[in-house]
Amino acid sequence: MNGGTQEFGTLLRRFRTDRLLTIQGLAQVSGVSVRGIGDLERGRRAAPQRRTVAALAAGLGLDADECDRLFAAAREDRSRPSAPLSVRTFPRGIEDFVGRRYELLTLAGLAAEAAGPGSPAGPAGAAGAGAGPTVVAVSAPPGMGKTALALRAARVLADRFPDGQMVLDLRGTDEDPPPATEIMLHVLKAFHVADTEIVEAGATGQAGLYEKLLLDRRCLLILDNARDEAQVAPLLPRRGSSMCLVTSRKVLTALEGVHRMSLRELSPQEAITFLGGMIGEERARREASALSEVASRCGYLPLALRIAGSRLATRTGWTVRRLADRLAVDKRRLDVLVAGDRKVSTAFDLSYQQLTPDAATLFRRLSAVPGPDAGAACAAHLLGRDLPSAEDVLEELVEAGLLDIIGDRFRMHDLLRLYAHSRLEAEEGEDGAEAVRTGLYRWLLDTTVVAGRWFEPGHGAPSPSYQGLVDLSSTALSRQWLRSQGTNWLAALRAAADAGDHAVVVEVAESLHWFSDQWIFWGHWPEVFRMAADSAETLGDDAARARHLNYCAWTLIVCERRPADSLPISTEAHAVATRAADVAQQAWAHFYQGWAYRNLNQLVRGTEHFGRAAALFASAGDVHGSLQARHGQSHILLLRKDAAAALTSFEETLVFLEAAGAAVEPHIAAATRIGIASGVGRSLALLGRWEEAIARMRAVVRHCAERGDTAAESRHLVHLAEVLIAAGRGDEAREALHACVTLAPGADPQRIADARALLLRLREGQ
């Protein structure tokens, strides 16, 4: 009788045999399971909680003295340190674990609930009376560190589960992974269940033995690398207070009643710390910049980082820069990420080989997408299928852990993209891969033209014959697609320019001219219209070249806030337009020069060019140009602080707008009305007519918000604040400025900066 558990077990066995009870008989009268009683008597588990002892005492019919002896033995046993019966298969290689703080804290919290005082092992029925066992499904793409997290969690959480901890490799990526029955048998043997009992239970009763084993214990099971729900579901405890952590490349969507955890890449700093720990702090500090590049080229993927770190650690003569430069070559990167028998590409192979043919095809072809993500319509084009079919295939890739889903977009990790492209070239040939890319780029540009023309006068909605994969039935949907796909169609446009498809470049840029005013601060409009101007020059089309040079000048003034840089462009546009005898583009060149000089506070020259533009617009019959030239002249007067003249000019411009009626595109008409109303309000402020001015400015801000024009709203909130400050209403000005600063993305960055500066000045009492 060595150890407290033996003493308790021996006493329990003596009481049972004295009453001529079998274990089965005691189980029936006490409610404690046969497995639980047998383990207690043989010393295979710690002494039970008080309520289990009470159930046993009642079943045995013990008198008061015997009850005291049984409870005392249980207390004495629980007071001694126990050596939990456990199988700990913690392989080497996790001592340098980095990151996953949030995930480990979450698992610790769940473990505390699973092994807390409310769910101790006890009589049948009592053990499952609490919240029940805790199951956590951890999913992530290959190489993301699922197993490393599971092993770290097993070590951190082991003490919470004294009855046993097991790490079981389900070998889910094998061609023939073990079935659940084989795993159950392994667990039963690990906990010393007698072979005779297992044989007596037979194949049909083995699951029952497994369930009873876990019912009476607080165990931690790590089911690592599960293949699918069919393999893992029978292994999940249904009652008791155990915790089960399942890792899988697949999402295991069909598992019910589980906590879910999805792993992403390490943060840049975590990745650098991880590499530094492998190669030494001094070396990491000496080549910090190169080490940061290595981490980035590894995509912050734990497996890739470990391989890169291993190469550096075993090649002490290498500089970190040498590895960074090797990883910089996309086509060689996966070949470089090899250390011994560890290969990033091998980890990806295991997932790729389990895909259906359609999913494998789409996975390969998604590597042709130039941007970071794609939508279902893009997938449908790449597969040559309808949208519902493409969505089904995308879901398979998400379930397989090869795609992330963010909203309605699908994203592939950088290293997976490189791997997918290698499979594309290997299985469809270089010519086939190029055909996929060319077809995708052509589809992107065709869709861009249809979406962009929604905003162009004379075009609007797609024709009834449009049968595209993207829903472009409204301006809102078209705007959403153009913005979400900006990176992709811009790459396609660049490729068209490089390939000499100059007519396509001009057509696409032309279709986007009116839309560009809806996405002012995108950052790429100068490049788009400069490419179009260059393509037009190659085509020998001076009229188109002048037009796109003028568009480019506009982007430099409005989008880039570089009015001085726009002047050579608009001057060139005027010369080209003159050669082409295009009076309207000559006028627009003067208009953009006037705008640039106005922003440079060279008001005399600005007035001169606006005047020339107005005359040329009138001769060309360009209503839009005439309206804008009048508006520009009004702002010059406002900047000169000639309030009365400015007020008159703005009012005359409004009369001109109303008279033009439907000849003015609605978007331009609405924006110009707001600009005129703002100009009138600011002119009234200069005249000291404060109440009228403030009312006008508040109405302008309200109209901008109603239109969803955040850029204009930010601009006019600052103007409103300036008027309020001039009127001596500082508190109201602060409200306007705070509203500006807190606007959603899409606000004018310069106006946000202006608002912050004004708030600072108000705080300082200036």
Automatic annotation (TrEMBL):
Residues 12-67 form the HTH cro/C1-type domain. SMART domains: HTH_XRE. SUPFAM superfamilies: lambda repressor-like DNA-binding domains, P-loop containing nucleoside triphosphate hydrolases, TPR-like. It holds the Pfam family HTH_31. It comes from the Bacteria. This is HTH cro/C1-type domain-containing protein.
